[in-house]
Structure formats: structure tokens, C-alpha cells
Amino acid sequence: MSKSQSVWVSRPLFPEVLASLAQYVDVRTEAKETKRTPEQLHKKLAEVDGAIVGLSDRIDAGVLAGNRRLRAIANLGVGYNNLDLPALTAAGVLATNTPDVLTQTTADYAWALLLAAARRVSSAERWLRAGRWRGGMRFDDWLGVDVHGKTLGIFGMGRIGQAVARRAIGFDMHVIYHNRSRLPEAVEHECRAIWVDKAELLQRSDHLVLVLPYNAQNHHAIGADELAHMKPTAVLVNIARGGIVDDAALAAALREGRLAAAGLDVFEGEPSVHSALRELENAVLSPHIASASADTRRAMAQLAADNMLAALGYGPSAGHPPS
Ligand code: DGY
User: Fold this and answer.
1) DSSP code, position 159
2) What's this model's pTM, rounded to 2 decimal places?
3) Residue 51, Cβ neighbours under 10 Å: how many?
4) Residue among 102, 237, 300 whose CB has most ligand 1 atoms within 8 A, to mutate
5) Is the pLDDT of residue 1 over 60?
6) Under CATH, to which class is 103-130+143-285 assigned?
7) Is 55 in the pocket of ligand 1 (CB under 6 A)?
8) Is the per-residue pLDDT at 153 higher than 60?
9) CATH placement of domain 6-99+294-318
10) DSSP label at 136?
11) What is the DSSP string of 214-245?
12) What gap in Å lies between CA 73 and CA 93, rounded to an integer?
């Protein structure tokens, strides 16, 4: 039966999620994920009532210009810096994101990067795979920095930051954090975390995890100045967004031994990665996969689909049966 509303899904998604959407709306899918130009996005959005998009789809006033049909955008992610919210509001388009479902998985991954960078896991594996392990175990080689018992700094103490902090309890760490506003005392107590100003966070952290949202104020929140205030033995982890760190300044600090190591899941201008970072053995690099467990990506996709249906007035909560 033909459906009255259409939804464009900008990238391949789980078949069962698409099927749940297709009960209510006409679903237009894409066989592969690709970076589209504003003109291409404009054309896609002109033909539908809703769109499920991701970080690489920048939805702004130009893309929305003249569109009288679009009613909702469901973003596949908790971060939504790819959406120009004032432009969406002006166009009367509802925007949704996928908080909560990815919190624990993303916090797990912050720890994967932190441990891998501190203990040189990627670099050691590359060396071993290259067949360079010949002379037994050298006692004074492959020395990393300890994690347990150290001071963990968290910059951005929302849901994910708090989940990162809770995991530090098992590592007997001292947790300090910086956030625009202090958390309620009960939450600080539960996370065993102490608020400090940004300068103290940079100076005291043995390991610093970035979990703040990207916006104009946070552009290069970690740049050359900030890096100069960190310990040369420190490890920096970015699971937040590219652009929060000045990647060129970070590469220089890592190369010159002013910072011990970094674990990076996000980059300025990704998918391209600064060539200086790619050359460094003390940088662990991954392609924006912090939320990429099978369960979590499925939950994110389903939440985006449910958000879309609710925004278009379908689904169980709207009491509207499939057509
Ligand atoms: C998020 O949810 O914000 C992740 O970074 C994926 O974009």
C-alpha cells in the first residue's frame, strides 16, 4: 500500500530498523555512505518529509532553502554539530539526536584508547607484525605510562564524561573534571570527581579525556597554549569531536616529547587526518568508532527511526497504525 510520507536515510542502516520505518512511511535508502555536496543534500531533502542523517551530512540554511516539505531531521548520533539548529528552527523542521543509548559504549572506548595510548599497544603490535621481535624480551623497552593510581582529568562532564569517571574507580584513580557548570554534589560523590578550573585540569591530569560538545566556543579548546600547560608524561584522549583539538599543535607536542601519547577517535576535517599525526608512533588513531559496537549502533539506528516516526506523527505513541 502506498504511504503518504517519505523518509530519506542517508546511509546504509540495519535492515530490521529500515523495516520498522517502512511499516509507516516510504523509505528511500542509499547503498553506501558518501559525503554529499550541499546541492546533493538540498535535492535529496526537497523530495521527502523526513531524513535520517549522520555527522557527514551538514544541514544548514542553504541546504534547506526553499524546502516547504521537510518536517523532521533525525541525527544518528548524540552530537549534532552538523545541524544548524537556528536554520532548522527557522524552517520549522524538528531535529532529534540519539542520547543515552551510546553512553556506556562510548565511555568503554575512551578507556580502550587511553589504555592503548598509555601502554603503547598499537605501536607494539605494528612492530611485532613487522617481524621485528627477535631478541627475546628487553626489560627496558616498550615502557609506557601507568594508568592505575594516576590523576584522570575529564573535560566535559555530561553523561559520557560521568561514565568515563565511574570506570576510573576500578583503576584507583583520582578524578578531576572541568565543565561549564559544576555537577550536583551527589553526582560528584558518585563519580568520585572533583571540579577544577581549566588551568588546573591541564596542569594536574596524567591522562586527559575530552568529552565536550563541539561549538564555536570550543573550537581549539586544546591548542598550543593548553598543550604547553600539560605534563610531558600526560596522555590525551579525544572521543568528542575534531576541531576541539588543534591537530597540528598536538602533532608538534607529540613529536617533540612535550606530551607522551594521544588516543584519537576524531579529527579536524575527518575523514582526512593530519599527515603529521599519521606518522607518529605515539598516537593511537581510529576512524570515529567510539559508539561502534553492534548493539549500540543498532540501538542508535532504532532510536533515530523511532524519533523520526514520532516527529511525523506515526508509531505506537501517536496511536497511528501502519498503513
Ligand atoms: C555521536 O553520537 O556524536 C558520535 O560521535 C557519532 O557521531
Assistant:
1) H
2) 0.94
3) 25
4) 102
5) no
6) alpha beta
7) yes
8) yes
9) 3.40.50.720
10) -
11) P-GGGTTSBSHHHHHTS-TT-EEEE-S-TTSB
12) 7
